[in-house]
Write a structure and sequence with these properties.
Layout lengths: L3 E2 L23 H6 L14 E7 L5 E7 L1 H4 L4 E6 L28 E2 L5 E7 L2 H10 L1 E6 L15 E2 L5 E3 L2 H7 L2 E9 L11 E8 L2 E6 L4 H11 L7 E4 L15 H13 L3 E4 L15 E9 L5 E13 L12 H4 L4 E11 L12 H19 L3 H7 L17 H12 L11 E3 L2 E13 L6 E7 L4 E4 L9 H13 L6 E4 L16 H26 L13 E3 L2 E3 L5 E3 H7 L4 E7 L8 H8 L16 E13 L5 E11 L6 H20 L31 E5 L23 H13 L10 H4 L1
Parallel strand pairs: 2-14, 12-13, 16-17, 21-22, 28-29
Antiparallel strand pairs: 1-29, 2-6, 3-5, 3-7, 4-6, 8-17, 9-17, 10-15, 11-12, 11-14, 15-16, 18-19, 19-27, 20-21, 20-26, 23-24, 24-25, 27-28
Helix pairs in contact: 8-16, 11-12, 15-16
The protein binds pterin cytosine dinucleotide and dioxothiomolybdenum(VI) ion.
EC number: 1.17.1.4
Pfam family, one: Ald_Xan_dh_C
Organism: Rhizobium halophytocola
Length: 764
Amino acid sequence: MNYQDVNTKRGDASDGGAILGTGVARHDGAAKVRGDAVYAIEHSLPGLLYCVMVNSTIGAGRVVQVDAQKAEAMPGVRMVLHAGNSLELVPQADFFGNRPAGDSYNPFAREIAFNGQLVAAVVAETLEQARAAARAVTVAVENGKVVSTFHDPAAGEGNVIAAMSKDWGDPDAALADAPVVVEATYETPREYNVPIEPHGLIAHWEDDDHLTLYEHSQWIDGMAKYHADAFAIPFDNVRMVCPYIGGGFGSKAQVQPHALAAAIASKLLKQPVKLAVTRPQTFTAFGGRPATRQTLKLGATKDGKLLAIDHDGVNETATYANFTETTGIVTGMMYDVPNFRSRQRTVPVNTVLPGPFRAPGKNPSGFALETAMDELAIKLSMDPVELRLRNEPEKDPETGKPWSTRKLREAYAAGAEAFGWDKRNPEIGSMRDGHELIGWGMAVGTHPVYSGGGEATVSVKADGTVEVSSSAIDMGQGTYTILAQTAADALGVPVERVAVKLGDSRYAGAPVAGGSKLANLMVGAVHKTAMAVRDELVQLGLSDPNSPLRDKANNLMLSGGRIATPAGEGITLAELLAATGRDAVELTRDTLPEAERTPQERRQMFATFASGHKESDFAVSRHSFCAHFIEVRVDEDFGTVRVSRVVTAVDAGRLYNTKLADSQFKGGIIMGIGMALLEEGVTDPRNGRILSANLADYRIATNADVPEIQTISVGVPDFQATPLGGKAVGELAIVGVAAAISNAVYHATGKRVRSLPISIEDLL
Ligand code: MCN
Ligand code: MOS
C-alpha cells in the first residue's frame, strides 16, 4: 500500500465536493497574520483600570503584614488588594478535584507555598502607575523552610496515587526468571508552558451580579462555571469572550488566582480591570509539567518477547494541592506483556501547582518506556523496530478490549521506508560524516481518544451564507477551519460561504479543548446540526406552499450552494429562503447522552470533563499511534546535538484537514525536540525561585533547531472511535520524540542519557 505525506492533499473543488479531509488554509490565518485578530486583553473598554501583581519573594512561610500605605498614596492608585481586604469567595474544586480547605477562599496568600505566589495586587488608572505602586508595596514575611525540588531529601517519599496502581500476572516472579532484564531510572525536568500569548484578562462587572471576562480559555464553559460558583452568581450571568488565542498547550483551561484577583478588583471598584501576566510571571501564575523520575524494569526472553514490566513513577506536586503526571499511562497499553505492575507517587515541594502540558502523563511515560525498549533492543542485539513488532498486542492489554483501530505495524513500515531505516548500520558510532557522528533512533507514541459531547448552532442566512457558532475555541489548532469544512459538506455550500463564530459563552456549549478531543467532538456536533438544518431546508423546498420546487420531485439535493431536484432543476438557498419568507433556517443540536434537559442543564454538562459520557460505554479501546524515526548529528569535538531529519508515521484515524493535522504533528515534534535538548526549569534550592523565568534562559526549540519533518498518515476512518472517524491529533506526535532522539544519540555515541535535557556535558 502507498501512503501519502500528510500535507499533500490541498483543499480545492477537485475532490468531488467533499471538503472535509482536504488541506483548506486556516480560516483565521489572515486575521492573525495581519494583526486584525483581537486577543483577550486587546479589547478596549471605557474606564479600564490596570492591575499589577505583587508576588512572594520567598519560597515558603507566612505573610505577616502587607504594607500598602506608600503605594496607596501614589498617583492614580485606586486600590491595593491583599488577603486582608479581598473578597472571600466560595471554594471551588479545580480540574483535578482539589478544593481549597475551609468555608471561603481568597486568591491572595496568607501562607506562602512557593516563590512567586500572589500576595497582593495594585489597581491604578494606568499600567505605569500600577507598576510603580506595586514596587512600593512592602510585604513582611516569616520565612519557612523551603523544599524546592523532589531531589531535596527533606521532600520525603510523597503520597501514593492509587489510581495509577495497576497489576496483572506476577511481575516479580517473571522478572526473577527472565533471561534478559533491563532496569534503569529516567528523569525529566520541570517544563514550563510558554505560549506565545502570555496569560491575562479583562474582568468587567456590568452590575453586582453580571461578570464578563475577556480571557483566553481552552474551556469557556468550565471556566465560566468556576467563576459563577466562586462568586455565587448564576452560571448564565458569566460571559467569557476569546475569539482568538495565541496557544495554550494545557495552561489555559483553568481559572488561576490572578484571574480571580482581577475579577475581585473589578467588582469592588465597579470598573473593568485588565491584568497582564508578565513573561516571568508565567512561570509562577500557573504550573507546567512537573519533574518526573521513573524506574522501569523490563524482563524478556532471548528472542525479545516481553515477560514483565514494572514501572515506578514519581512527580513533583505542590504542597497545597495535588497534580499527578500519570507516568504509568502509556506503559500498560503499548506492548503485549503478561506480567505488569505500575506504581506512582507525587512528592509535594514548594512550587506552584503543576498542570497539564501537551500530552500530560503520556509524554514522560513514553520517554521512559521507549528509551527502556531501546536499551532492551541493544541488550538483545535486535533491531528496535523488530523488538516492537514482536510485542505488538492484538488487544488492549490493560482493559482486554479490542482496539478500535491500531495501525502501528503500518506506521513502522511506512516510517521505516520513508526514512530509509534498512540502511542503518546498528553498530554504535559507525555512521559518520566528517566530525559528525550520525545516529538513527526510533520510538513510538500514543494518545487516547477521550469522550464527551458538543453542541453547535448552524444557521443558513437569507443571503445563502452559513453561520456556525459554538463556545468551542481555537488557540491555533484549527477549530474554525474544520468546523467550516464540516458544515460546507453537510449543506453543500462552498467553504468560503461558511462563517464560524467561536470563543463566546453566549454561543452553544462545548467541551474542553484538551485531551485532544475538541476536533472530534465538535466536528460530530456540527455535522449532526448541519444535517438537521439540511433536512429542514429539504422539507421547506418540498412542502412550503411558496416553494418554487414544491411538487417538482420527491427529494431535493443540496450542492454548490443550491437546492435542486434529482433532475437538476434548482434554486439557490437564498432564493429558497426569500420565496418561503424566511430570514434564516437555524437549529441548535447537541451530542450529549439522550435526555430531556433545560438549556441551563445542558450548559452544566459542558462544564464537566466528559459531559456525561463514559469510557465504559465503549466496547473498544480507542487510541491514536505514531512511530518516529529520527536522525541526529553529534559533533565529536563539541558534543553538540542537532536533530537533522524526522520522519513520523501517524495513525490518527481520519484527518479532517491534512494541512492542519500536519501542522499539529510538526508542532508536537518540535516541542519534543525542545524537551529532548533544551527545556529545563531551574530553581534556586535556597528559596525556590525559578532561575529560568524568561525565554532566554528557558529555551524552547526555534527555527534553527528544527530540521525538515515529514509526516505520513497511515490511519483509516475509525467510526468506532468517533462519529466522523477521526482520532486524537493535537498531542499525539510529541509523545515518543524525546526517546527517539535519546535513542539516536546512543546510536551515534554509545552514551545512554536517561535524564533530560541531553546536554553537552552528557556527551563529552
Ligand atoms: N485534526 C484533524 N483530524 C482529526 C483531529 C484533529 O485534522 N481527526 C486537526 C484539526 O485541525 C484540529 C486539530 O487537529 O483543529 C487538533 O484537534 P484535536 O486533536 O481534537 O485537539 P483539540 O482541538 O482538542 O486541541 C487541543 C490540543 C491540545 S490538548 C494541546 S495541549 C495543544 C494542541 O491541541 N495545544 C495547542 N495543539 C495545539 N496547537 C496550537 N497551535 N496551540 C496549542 O496551544
Ligand atoms: Mo492539552 S495539555 O490536554 O490542553
